[in-house]
UniProtKB/TrEMBL annotation:
Family from the record: Belongs to the metallo-dependent hydrolases superfamily. Adenosine and AMP deaminases family.
UniProtKB keywords: Hydrolase, Metal-binding, Zinc
PROSITE patterns tied to this protein: A_DEAMINASE (PS00485)
PANTHER family cross-referenced by the UniProt entry: ADENINE DEAMINASE
Alphabetical GO biological process terms: purine ribonucleoside monophosphate biosynthetic process
Family annotation (NCBIfam families): aden_deam (TIGR01430), PRK09358.1-5 (NF006849)
Adenosine deaminase domain segment(s): 8-335
Protein name, per record: Adenosine deaminase
Pfam family, one: A_deaminase
Top-rank taxon: Bacteria
UniProt GO molecular function: deaminase activity; hydrolase activity, acting on carbon-nitrogen (but not peptide) bonds, in cyclic amidines; metal ion binding
Originating species: Georgenia satyanarayanai
Co-factor requirement: Zn(2+)
Amino acid sequence: MRDLTTLPKTHLHLHFTGSMRPSTLAELATDAGIRLPPALLDGQALRVPAGERGWFRFQRLYDAARAVVRTEAAMRRIVREAAEDDAAEGSRRLEIQVDPTSYAPFVGGLTPALEIVLDEARAASRTTGVEVGVVVAASRTRHPLDARTLARLAVRHSGDGPGEVIGFGLSNDERRGDTSEFAPAFTIARQAGLASLPHGGELLGPDHVRSVLTHLGPTRLGHGVRLADDLALLEKVSEAGIALELAPASNVALGVYPTAADVPLRTLHEAGARIALSADDPLLFVSRLTDQYRIAREDHGMDDAAVAELARGSVRASLAAESSKRHWLAEIDAWLAS
Ligand SMILES: [Zn+2]
């Protein structure tokens, strides 16, 4: 069996705070004089009995982790380490999403908060060889006007190169907010050429995906795993070229499916879904990028050819230049031929 760490791949769904190494979280908490919930430090986080999982626990721990990020240095460190960790896992491109709102008060506003992330993404692209693009993500729990402000900020920093804003997202609890009210923000982003990268179809099912399709015009869906409940809709999504950023470890940690083997990865794969496996929030799910490919192999019995096809899917679904994609696809062929 081939080494999944050296399988070339991309990483298209990773949150800024959720990417943090546990050791970094602990150090930043000490520096900031903040006491963390023990669950964040015991290496278990959301690896708890099924009844204790779910969004509430996740949000509480996520907020606690985010609270330690209070300096420019901390923000730069998170981006740098995310790129380094991706490089160590065979990732060729990282599309990291950040909502600058939470960090803005500590660094002088929304614009500096985003510019710090972008500047470090540029530097990390150079030093690690991983292309790092940035997705600005609004939150469903805030007012839709805040999303418009973020969309305008994203547009001002948009571009195709490393360390530029490549897309606009919508994150947080899918059950919060009215999807249609975020449509104007996505219109601002899409009209300026940014990809539309909202979450959808993880906690909620096909009806939620329909609403996201109608109002936000997604380029890809964050998750979309619940399309397994409606294969006719999945077919429409796939025909429209919309890929799913699947994060099996997240689905289990949030209680959407009881175990990794229950995540309908094979159903989606065999139904022709465009899939990009991603870690989402490795800090909380205690499961990194390569672990998602390990789940495909070990829990879903996928052989190396099938796993390589998942990696190809991640490359095709990325927002990288076509020349880069061709190069990485050839590297995947070489991995499979080795
Ligand atoms: Zn996510």
